[in-house]
Design a protein that fits this description.
GO terms for molecular function: purine nucleosidase activity. By secondary structure, this protein is α/β, with parallel strands linked by helices. About 35% of the residues lie in helices and about 15% in strands.
């Protein structure tokens, strides 16, 4: 079983990733760090609390992450993709009590669970803060999985930059330069992790878990948003869920080991760069970029997790 701390900013794809993590019998979620990103930190916190309540997992602490990027610029939100509240048409109950645990609790969790995995599917600001405030502690972390970047493929915010790295390139570059045992799931493979309403309906036919019952409304909104962005797509990519799926099933993808830089200047801000020339040497650090994905294996894993033994009514 993988013990993980999940950094997220839900957002629809983050929310589906949280569902996947909570329902996967091979993952034990020790904490979820709530930060700005697709929505404000406050809204992200409410969304996480709502998902935990539906899952019957209110024992999982919600850690208060960062409110804004380290660049000092105000964050940009994407209501046209995720909805005003981040869950498409769904709004968490107004009487929901979402309590935040202090950021310092992360250090206690890491110390008490040596060899855990950290997964960051949002902006990297909170993860960078974890390093800056307690550099030695990341040595107790077995591996880091990050959704971010676009290598030799178009970005989704600018022609070259992916949203997470673009949202705080300073933090992302700090992570690339200082972390080891790092696995990056970029747009190269996450764009291929497409889920259709047919897949969603298959899942809903197989489970009555209350957490999964919101999947149809959430994904219908998300898919419609993507159809406007990419006519003819037929579904929507689950950038964040596939990152978790790769963490559990690393053989589902193929990686290349390279040094990575994230551009922080005005020109090309948020662009992720690596040397893919045949003559280039492997990275000194263990930085691995997923460049290939077995889509059918991902699809099978996603449907099994969302509707299988982990998806029974609690």
């Amino acid at each position: 079983m993988k013990k993980i701390i999940l950094f997220a900013d839900p957002g629809i794809d983050d929310s589906v990733a949280i569902m996947y993590a909570l329902l996967n019998p091979e993952i034990k979620v020790l904490a979820i760090v709530s930060s700005y990103g697709n929505v404000t930190k406050e809204q992200a916190t409410d969304n996480i609390a709502y998902l935990l309540k539906l899952a019957g997992r209110e024992d999982v602490p919600i850690i208060g992450g960062t409110n804004a990027p380290s660049t000092g610029k105000p964050p940009t939100y994407y209501p046209e993709i995720h909805g005003k509240e981040g869950l498409g048409p769904i709004r968490p109950p107004e009487d929901l009590q979402a309590e935040l645990t202090n950021f310092s609790e992360l250090y206690t969790i890491i110390k008490n669970n040596p060899g855990l995995t950290i997964v960051d599917v949002g902006r990297n600001t909170s993860l960078a803060a974890l390093f800056l405030l307690g550099e030695n502690l990341i040595k107790d972390v077995s591996e880091f999985y990050i959704m971010g970047g676009a290598f030799l493929v178009p970005g989704n915010v600018t022609p070259l930059a992916e949203a997470n790295f673009y949202g705080d390139p300073t933090a992302s570059n700090l992570v690339m330069q200082n972390f080891d045992n790092l696995y990056i799931a970029p747009l190269n493979i996450t764009n291929k992790a497409i889920i259709t309403m047919e897949h969603v309906n298959t899942i809903l036919d197989m489970t009555e878990h209350p957490l999964v019952q919101i999947l149809d409304d959430v994904m219908e909104y998300y898919i419609e948003a993507y159809k406007k962005l990419i006519p003819g797509i037929g579904g929507a990519p689950l950038h964040d869920a596939v990152t978790l799926s790769l963490m559990v099933n690393p053989s589902m993808g193929k990686t290349i080991r390279r040094e990575v830089e994230v551009f922080t200047g005005v020109s090309g801000m948020g662009t992720s760069s690596a040397d893919f020339r045949v003559s280039s040497k492997n990275a000194e650090k263990n930085i691995n970029i997923f460049l290939e994905l077995d889509y059918e294996a991902f699809l099978e894993d996603f449907i099994e997790v969302m509707s299988g033994s982990g998806g029974q009514v609690p």
